[in-house]
């Protein structure tokens, strides 16, 4: 089992492709870092009502998207760990869908709360018999009962936990759900296609080998950063429009990533 990637196996033409990809990747990282700075600078004008759950959640979703993209840039710069980028991009896209729905319907915060309660109840119910969750119920004997009551209230108001497919549908993003999101899920679930992309290689004798920390294709990383840039730009564009504080930096960023 080889722990390295032998680019020499593929000859000078392959090395030229890698060099071109490296240049593209450096440009994407620089563009991404500048985009994060722009988003942070522009975020200073957002006025969040601390008594509004929808405001707080919208700002937090935008912050999550921004920070996750920052993490993508760190991984891209250290290419040995770039396989985590698609997983972060999937979380970014999920946050964008929730942000989109929330900005169009302030009461969607109830759907977000219902989804959180559903996950908490699953943990609390499992803790009764699951030794790996031993101690979770200590000091909180009535939590499950209170959460179930709150969930019933939300559902009575028409707010329930939604599947991600339904969330994408509500946001008018069915194509993204069946397209880029489906591709990112391959990596998130470590399907065979993702394993092949990360680790399968061919040795000098032509036989297959599995590599650890194989040198990734820089062009592929750059393309993934482009996906992240578009998510980040869309997040900024939506929240600044919803809060009625447009900023030239955000407008220019959105235009540049769509070009």
Describe what you observe in this structure.
The structure is a single chain. Helix content is 68%, strand content 2%. With 259 residues, it is mainly α. It has one domain. It has a two-stranded antiparallel sheet.
Distance between the termini: 43 Å
Number of strands: 2
Q: What fraction of residues sit in β-strands?
A: under 5%
Largest sheet: 2 strands, antiparallel
Question: What best-fitting shape do the alpha-carbon axes yield?
Answer: globular
Number of helical runs? 11
Order of SSEs: HHHHHHHHHEEHH
Helix content: 55-70%
Averaged pLDDT: 89
Query: How do the strands line up in the largest sheet?
Result: 1-2
Low-confidence stretches: 1-14
| Radius of gyration, in angstroms, nearest whole number | 22 Å
Helix/strand/pairing category: mainly alpha
């Amino acid at each position: 089992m080889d722990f390295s990637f032998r680019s020499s196996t593929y000859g000078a033409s392959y090395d030229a492709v890698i060099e071109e990809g490296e240049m593209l990747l450096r440009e994407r990282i620089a563009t991404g870092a500048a985009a994060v700075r722009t988003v942070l600078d522009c975020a200073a004008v957002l006025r969040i009502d601390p008594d509004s759950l929808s405001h707080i959640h919208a700002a937090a979703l935008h912050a999550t998207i921004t920070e996750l993209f920052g993490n993508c840039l760190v991984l891209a710069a250290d290419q040995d760990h770039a396989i985590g980028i698609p997983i972060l991009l999937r979380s970014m896209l999920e946050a964008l869908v929730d942000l989109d729905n929330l900005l169009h319907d302030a009461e969607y915060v109830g759907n977000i709360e219902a989804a959180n309660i559903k996950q908490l109840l699953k943990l609390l119910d499992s803790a009764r018999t699951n030794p790996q969750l031993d101690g979770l119920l200590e000091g909180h004997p009535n939590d499950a009962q209170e959460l179930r009551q709150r969930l019933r209230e939300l559902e009575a108001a028409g707010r329930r936990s939604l599947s991600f497919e339904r969330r994408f549908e509500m946001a008018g993003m069915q194509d993204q759900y069946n397209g880029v999101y489906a591709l990112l899920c391959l990596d998130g679930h470590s399907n065979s296609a993702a394993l092949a992309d990360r680790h399968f290689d061919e040795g000098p004798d032509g036989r297959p080998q599995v590599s650890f920390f194989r040198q990734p294709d820089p062009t592929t990383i750059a393309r993934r950063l482009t996906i992240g840039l578009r998510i980040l730009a869309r997040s900024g564009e939506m929240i600044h429009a919803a809060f009625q504080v447009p900023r030239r930096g955000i407008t220019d960023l959105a235009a540049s990533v769509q070009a």
